[in-house]
Design a protein that fits this description.
Length: 371
């Protein structure tokens, strides 16, 4: 008896949004669920090549996640696995390869993403080989042009603004609108809106932040109020905004310390010696206020010899020589991988950031199969 026809539901899709702790859907939870579903032994031997050969999108997403996020070796072998997939006939595979190449700081996938955004017709997630999979029009999944626009926005490819605007005119999805906003553009919905940057506006935000920072204040919604107000203040060049951010460095709430530290060091023109000391003291083992991942991202992103030296000493104390050698390649992974977890508007170029963390590449017509 032949097997039952597969549907789009059999293939699943793995979200990769890093801001999982601020949303109802957690990429980590999905990864765990996928791991449990396929069993530890199968996950241990999962490979991108084998997953792509199956054509199953859920397995492909899981293979890319395990391979890239857990990668601790030199980058050349990983790039050798990913780059050839930019010409794969399945647009989902091309998109996934391009997105993960962006993640590791390789610009070769930008043209593939632009080609998908510029497709005159929808690019359904499960459209490839739809006949073999017996998919109906309702089972073709989401339009991959949307995710392609999101990735280009995330990595600040401002050259693609005309293409993303044109796509938004035909397909006004929220994710495309967010890409436009990230790239410094406007959508029809907010045209004519100008944020109030007056003293009164900043004072209002400062008051909200200080109330949330008060240990005696109500716990209800504190986390949300802290990160939102500090992100808004971090995007403003104003003495009061900077003062409140530095006050947040003394908070007992880690979310406040993290958002204030990142914005002061990466997003405020004057920087902050007090924020530098937060990073240096944790690298020296004097406190634990920042998540370790955030700490190491900051240490690698900043062009600061003292922080770099402290980071190397921290690394020597915790990892063997082979790990440290391999980690050198990872120091150049883009700032854009994680910065939107902490900032509302990122100045371009952000001050004091190593240029290697801001990969940009001219986009030209790609020599790839049509979407």
């Amino acid at each position: 008896m032949p097997p039952a026809p597969r549907t789009a539901a059999d293939f699943g899709h793995l979200p990769v949004e890093r801001r999982w702790w601020k949303s109802s859907s957690s990429a980590l939870a999905v990864l765990v669920a996928c791991a449990l579903a396929c069993g530890p032994s199968e996950c241990e031997r999962i490979s991108i090549t084998k997953a792509v050969a199956t054509g199953e999108h859920g397995r492909i997403a899981l293979a890319f996640s395990y391979t890239v996020y857990d990668h601790r070796g030199r980058m050349a072998p990983l790039l050798a696995k990913l780059r050839p997939l930019l010409t794969h006939p399945d647009p989902y595979v091309r998109l996934t390869a391009a997105r993960y190449l962006c993640w590791v700081g390789d610009t070769s996938g930008y043209a593939v993403l632009l080609a998908l955004v510029q497709s005159p017709e929808p690019v359904p997630e499960f459209g490839y080989d739809r006949v073999r999979l017996h998919l109906t029009a309702e089972q073709l999944g989401k339009d991959l042009r949307i995710e392609s626009a999101s990735v280009l926005g995330k990595y600040r490819q401002r050259e693609v603004l005309p293409a993303i605007r044109a796509l938004y005119a035909k397909l006004p999805a929220a994710e495309i609108a967010q890409a436009l906003v990230t790239l410094g553009s406007r959508t029809d919905a907010d045209r004519g809106f100008e944020p109030q940057r007056s003293d009164r506006y900043v004072e209002f935000l400062a008051g909200l932040a200080r109330t949330a920072l008060d240990p005696a204040a109500s716990e209800a919604g504190r986390y949300l109020r802290l990160w939102q107000t500090l992100e808004y203040l971090g995007s403003l060049e104003h003495p009061l905004a900077r003062r409140v951010l530095e006050e947040a460095l003394d908070s007992t709430f880690p979310v406040a310390v993290e958002h204030a530290t990142v914005n002061l060091l990466v997003n405020q023109p004057e920087g902050s010696e007090k924020a530098r000391q937060v990073v240096l003291r944790q690298l020296r083992g004097e406190h634990h206020l920042l998540q370790w991942e955030t700490l190491m991202e900051l240490a690698a992103a900043l062009d600061d010899p003292e922080i770099a030296a402290a980071g190397e000493a921290f690394d020597r104390a915790r990892h063997d020589a082979s790990y440290r050698v391999a980690a050198v390649d990872h120091r150049d992974w883009p700032l854009y991988d994680w910065i939107d977890d902490y900032v509302l508007v990122l100045r371009d170029p952000p001050p004091r950031v190593r240029p290697e963390r801001l990969p940009r590449a001219p986009l030209s017509s790609p020599d790839h199969p049509p979407a």
